[in-house]
Specification:
There is one protein chain. By secondary structure, the chain is mainly alpha-helical. The chain has one domain. Helices cover about 80% and strands about 0% of the residues. The protein has a two-stranded antiparallel ribbon. Helix 1 (about 30-55) packs across helix 5 and helix 3 packs antiparallel against helix 5 (about 160-195). The longest helix has about 40 residues, at about 60-100.
């Protein structure tokens, strides 16, 4: 685990017999080795989940339950976050565009800012906070109470029953939640502008999406499926490999949120470059 602390050991080597014990120095490569070990374990875990997920029987009932848990129960948070983003972007865009005498570009600026930039990343971070912590804590509790061991004893693959449905649910629901966040942001952004200056919703939509193509909006929306993979994979990984009782459950939930959010942001950087290269 990346967050694991490096312990120092003391002792006397044969060459230093008869001398006072000295604290052993920690190799500067130790953190790198820990990180590489973590990525290796994560890759091995992902491969086991893929093998279990593509092998019948499939857990359709569990998948539907997890889609409801990830999607329906995160909808209100995502919509509220999108509404807040819409208000903030509307206020900032109106002030900046008025400063440069380009207020007529407000609809297009708001639409592109929300759909291409703010909507996907905000949705990913909100879902990482809620779903990542929930999955990590739930599976960690099952691990420390030996429920996962009982599932294995019952000849049921825990990767197929527990990990695969949760990861797939995150992959499927993130783009849909992103659409909800985008719609909420655009609606509140328009309402904020309309309170200051008259602007019909029809005109806002026509000006905002004028000249837009699917290549401009589909890639930013569906890249959140990668966010879902990251969130579900990291949360399941830490949850199913936790140890240490109640303290381990807390560490699993914390690491699921922190690392999930961090890798969502890093993935956004990579995906933006990829999308710009493939869909110029």
């Amino acid at each position: 685990m990346i967050g694991a602390t490096v312990t120092e050991s003391t002792g006397i080597t044969p060459a230093s017999a008869g001398k006072p014990a000295a604290t052993a120095s920690v190799s500067p490569l130790r953190p790198i080795m820990i990180a590489l070990e973590w990525f290796g374990n994560l890759g091995s875990f992902f491969w086991q989940v893929v093998q279990a997920g593509v092998t019948p029987p499939y857990e359709w009932r569990e998948l539907i339950r997890q889609m409801d848990e990830v999607g329906a129960r995160s909808l209100s948070l995502v919509v509220m976050a999108g509404a807040a983003i819409g208000v903030v972007v509307s206020l900032e865009a109106r002030y900046s565009l008025a400063h440069f005498g380009a207020k007529s570009l407000f609809p297009a600026t708001l639409v592109y800012s929300v759909i291409e930039i703010m909507g996907p990343i905000i949705t990913g971070l909100v879902v990482s906070g809620r779903v990542g912590a929930g999955i990590g804590a739930e599976l960690a509790s099952m691990k420390v109470t030996e429920q996962i061991d009982a599932i294995e004893v019952s000849a049921v693959n825990p990767y197929r029953l527990l990990a695969a449905p949760r990861i797939l649910a995150c992959i499927v629901m993130l783009p849909l939640l992103t659409l909800a966040a985008d719609a909420s942001a655009l609606l509140t952004g328009w309402a904020t502008q309309a309170m200051v200056e008259p602007l019909s919703f029809h005109q806002f939509i026509n000006d905002g999406f004028y000249g837009a193509t699917l290549n401009a909006f589909l890639p930013p929306t569906f890249k959140t499926a990668v966010y879902g993979l990251i969130i579900g994979l990291i949360a399941c990984f830490h949850g199913m490999r936790t140890h240490g009782g109640a303290a381990g459950v807390g560490r699993a939930a914390t690491n699921s949120v922190v690392l999930g959010s961090l890798f969502v942001i890093l993935a956004d950087v990579v995906l933006v470059k990829f999308i710009l290269a493939v869909f110029p």
